Amino acid sequence: MAGKALIVIDVQNDFCPGGALAVDGGDEVVPVINRLMGEFDHVILTQDWHPADHSSFASQHAGKAPFEDIEMPYGPQRLWPDHCVQGSPGADFHPELYWTRAELVIRKGFRKAIDSYSAFFENDHETPTGLTGYLRERGLDDLTFVGLATDFCVAYSALDARRQGFEARVIMDACRGIDLAGSMAAMTGKMEDAGVVLA
Ligand code: VGL
Ligand code: ZN
Question: Full-prediction pTM beyond 0.70?
C-alpha cells in the first residue's frame, strides 16, 4: 500500500510578509496547510537554514545585488537577500503553522558553499539531504508538496521527487511563488512535463 506524506516546504517567517525574502501572500498558505495536515497521517517539514555567511547571499559577493546571478562551481546561482539565518527569528516556522505535527524536519542550505532549493538534493544536484532514504525506509512514496516558494523550493522538490521515483502532487492554492523573470510559468511547465500533478 502506498504511504502518503504531506511535505511542507519552508513556511518560515522570512518568506512571509515582513520577512527578508517575502513572497506575496506567503502567510495565506498557513490556514490552508493546517487544514490539509488533518488529511495526512505523515507530515514532513523543510526549513531553509543558512549560516550567516552563506554563499547564496548577495552580501557575500562584492558589487553584487540580490536577485543577480553568479557562477558557482556547481553552475549558475541566483543571489538572495540574507534570509533564514540559523537560529534567527526569520528562520522560525510561521507561528500559526501547526509545526508540531511534523514527524521530520529536513534542514537545507546549511553548507556555506552550496545553496539548496530541493528537499532531496542541494543545488549541485549530487549532495543528498537524506530524504529519499527516509521516505523509502518508511514506505512513503505518494508525496504531496505545499509551501513556499512555488517556483523555487516547491518546484525543485517536486521535480526531484519524480526523478527519485515517487508520486508527486503540488496543491497550488497552498503555495505562493516569487515569480522572477517568468519563473512561475517556466517551473509549472517543467513540473507538468515531469508528471507532477498540479492540483
Ligand atoms: C527559497 C530562495 C532561497 C525557497 C529558499 O524556499 O523557495 N528560495 N532560499
Ligand atoms: Zn535560502
Answer: yes
